[in-house]
Amino acid sequence: MDIAEKIISGDIRSVARLIRDIDDNVPGSREVLKDLYPSTGKAYVVGITGSPGVGKSTLVDQMVTHLRADGKTVGVLAVDPTSPFSGGAILGDRVRMQRHSMDEGVFIRSMATRGYFGGITQSTRSAIDVLDAMGKDCIIVETVGVGQDEIDIVQSADTTIIVLVPGMGDDVQALKAGILEIGNIFVINKADREGADRTVNDIRLMIEMDEKRYKDGWKPPILTAQAVFDKGIIEILDEIDKHRKHLESSAKIQSMRKYEKVRNDLSEMIKDKIIRDVFDEIINSGEFETTLQSIIKGETDPYTACDTIVSKKLKKGAA
Amino acid sequence: MNQKRKIRILVAKPGLDGHDRGARIIARTYRDAGFEVVYSGLHQTPEEVVQAAIQEDVDMIGLSSLAGAHMYLFPRVVELLHEKGADDIVVCGGGIFPEEDIPKLKKAGIKELFTPGTPLDKVVKWVEENVKPRG
Ligand SMILES: Nc1nc2c(ncn2[C@@H]2O[C@H](COP(=O)(O)OP(=O)(O)OP(=O)(O)O)[C@@H](O)[C@H]2O)c(=O)[nH]1
Ligand SMILES: [Mg+2]
In what order do the strands lie in the sheet with A159-164? Predict the structure, then answer.
């Protein structure tokens, strides 16, 4: 069996290793992804995002339990930011999901953003494909939402859940532009705390002020949950099902979504490849350093230097 | 193509004893050294630790222990890794243990043991020298 076949047959070590190779940008991993692509597209992908500490991992943990009780297999990708200072990362989401680690039907993987742009990196997108190809029915992707990252996840998820906590209504006001655009379901977690109803109302109001956005017919529900106490989880899963049925209800929505997804995947992939193959190589080249020195000495200006370096690199072609 | 292998480490605390301050400190130290640290928390069985290590495809497992059961728990992790064909994952231990246990643990396959007296930069240096990202 080659690696792709092993992955399709569900071999955990091959899956784990391939995700690592993707993350480390090992050239061979791309070849495997090409072979896996025809086996993707079957899993349902749920994105969960929200500010640090709102209870995303706890929610995911409970959702996994319920999905397993329904007989569904689950993949979890938990993405945490890479430290911009050291390049290292602490990936701590697994702590909340540890009870699933002995369950063969669950595969949990922690990933770091490793720089570049936003929370959903090319590696995460490819890792979704890998878990999809290995046959997981549902893939849950947890990202910490800070601005752009939240928007990124939408492109890769079929259903996007925004998690908030009581008292965050005011923040939502500030985040409105980003946050309300992308949520298919809103969950006010930690509803055991005071003010959950008010936050629900605040968000409902904001959604209703913007009716025209829901012309495709899905108006995001706003749910409350208490993830640590396993409350409200079934309702969330029900809404995910409803949203899925909504997406699948019309050929028009389906083909539009397919187009959007393929378009986004390909353009992100091109962007990623250009950064890795062109940008990184320029930055790490000796010529880059000498150019910096010439600018500092006043021998040239950054505009001219930029044009020269880029056109030279592009003419030579990327590796 | 640019290839950046990064060291990935699972920090885990098997057994039933108390808090995880030590594990958190070491996790932060590793992050600041540029490693990716998967932190999996308290109270795990050796089976869970090994399963997590495999799913996360780490290069090293750092086991933390404060009291007692390390003589069973640490070697058990090594044993299970062996059973899974994952002996290439380096296992280290950190915590408080009697001096005489250290050679026994090393014999059981724990590559290195760090005690509260080990300076953190020494730990990092050891990892850099002894743990190579697997390729
Ligand atoms: N009171 C209360 N606490 C909760 C609830 N859900 C989660 N928590 C607690 O909130 C804290 C953070 O939970 P996590 O699940 O780690 O939150 P997260 O959003 O995944 O955090 P990051 O991944 O660090 O951004 C933990 O201490 C949880 O026990 C809830 O419904 N009510
Ligand atoms: Mg989390």
Answer: A106-112, A74-80, A138-144, A44-50, A159-164, A185-188, A222-224
